[in-house]
Amino acid sequence: MTSLDREPKSYVVRQGLDRILLELEVGDTVPPERELAVRFEVSRETVRQALHELLVEGRIERRGRGTVVARPKLTQPLSLRSYTEGALLYGRVPSRVVVTWEDLVADDTLATDLALPPESTVMHLERVLLADGERIGLESTYLPKSRFGDFRQTFDPTTSLYAAIRASGVEFGEATERIETVLASPREAALLESTTAMPMLLMHRKTLDTNGVPIESIRSLYRGDRIAFVATLTR
C-alpha cells in the first residue's frame, strides 16, 4: 500500500464522528476529546481539528464546557420575503433585539444607493436577529428619512420592518443582493454570541419599489454555522 492509498487520520476521524452524530439527537452530548482520541487511536489535536470542522459547519455547538449536537441550520429563502416570513416558513420563531435606532448623515456611497442628495438624513436601524431565541444575524438597515421619517413614531423596531413598509403603501419591486464570506469584528462577534474565528455570511442588499425608487440599503451579517440560504432558479 502506498502513501496515496492510506486515508489521512483526520479523514478517518471525521468519518467516525459523522457516524456517531447519526446515532445522537439534537442536544445530546458529544463524547469528549480524550475518549474520541482513544477510540480512533489518534492524538487529541487530530480530534480537535475534526470537531472544529463540525463546529464551523453548524453540526455541533459548545454548551458550557461540553459539546452537543446542534439544531439544523435555519434556511432562509433568497427573495423579497422579510426575515420574519422566511423564519416562519421553516417553522422557526423569529424575534429581534434592537441595538441602534438613530438618524445619520448619509455618506456619498449611501446617498448614491438610496438616490438621495449629498448629506441627506437617513435612519439607521441595527438589530440582532434571533430564531427560537438563538442569535443568528446582525442587520443594519438604512432608510431615507424623507420617505419613512414617521416610522420613528409609528413603527415597533422589534417587529417586521417589511410588514410596516407594505402597510405604508409601498410595494416592493426588486432587490440586488451580494453575499460573501467574512470574519466578524469583536463587537459583531459579541452581539452574535460567537467568536471572531467563526466564518460569517455578509449580505448587502439594495431594494427598489415598483417604480424603481430605492427603499432601503441593508448590511446583514449572519452566523455561517447557524444559517443557510436557498434560491429557486428558473429560466
Number of helices: 9
Largest sheet: 6 strands, antiparallel
Helical/strand content category: alpha+beta
**Poorly predicted residue ranges:** none
In whole angstroms, the N-to-C terminal distance is: 49 Å
Strand content: 35-45%
- The percent range for helix content is 25-40%
Q: What would the principal axes of the Cα set say about the shape?
A: elongated
CATH class call of the largest domain = Alpha Beta
Strand order of the largest sheet: 4-5-6-9-8-7
**Overall tally of structural domains:** 2
Q: Rg, please?
A: 22 Å
Average of per-residue pLDDT values: 90
| Fold-level CATH name of the largest domain | Chorismate lyase
CATH architecture of the largest domain: 3-Layer(aba) Sandwich
Tell how many strands the DSSP assignment holds.
10
H/E element string?
HHHEEEHEHEEHHHEHEEE
Summarize the structure.
One of its GO terms (molecular function) is DNA binding. The strands form three sheets. Strands 4-5-6-9-8-7 form a six-stranded antiparallel sheet.
